[in-house]
UniProtKB/TrEMBL annotation:
It comes from the Bacteria. Pfam families: DUF5995 (PF19458). This is DUF5995 family protein. InterPro entries: DUF5995.
Amino acid sequence: MTTIDEVISRMDEIVAECAIKESRVGYFAILYRQVTIRVKEGILKGEFEDNPRMEKLDVIFAKRFIDAYDAFMNGQSPTKSWKTCFEAANNSKHIVLQHLLLGINAHINLDLGIAAVETVDGKNINSILNDFNNINALLSELVDGVKNNIGTISPLFRFLIQFAKGRDEILVNFSIKLARDGAWKFANEYLLHTDKPACIDMRDQIISGLAESMVKPGTRLSRIIGIISFSEWRSVSNTMKQLDQVAKKAVA
């Protein structure tokens, strides 16, 4: 897999597989497919500082999700961050937001820093900073758009936001900007680390811990999530269709 068109094609397959299997992994796959499509449009329009390099970054970045998905589906073990995300997809009590943020958590907090280092391939990592920020801005734009229009999928979502306002709940206060900054710091650490597998493992331990906090929030918030999940009840494939429409409108 070397081109963004190949990535989009594989993402189409994953979305279709998830719809057939009624797998909630499809929620993140739909969101991320739309990010990839938006990156392709940006490359064609010359929006990035280095458009060929952005395609390389996008492919390496996306491949980490795709490889993790393939590994899990084949009974192998991906990183703990992705394993937590994929295992949570089997739980009907989690709300759409949880599934989306579990994927974003693994992909930005763990995968993005690794992808940035592999993209520059030993060259000055600061040369990619602007486009590193650009891809995060696109993801943030899409996530904010989905949150603002998620009422059709999650009628009681606003209630959750109001409850958690001002509280230290990572589930609803997850910040892509903070994740981006952490991912950049990790990228610099990973670049210089002499034992890269060990570096990834240490980072994975931390990020999988954040994932557990999203899966198991506080008792009071868990009760509210239970109410919201009931209001979201419908087939996974139908939710995916609605989420796809919301995601497309978010970048229109």
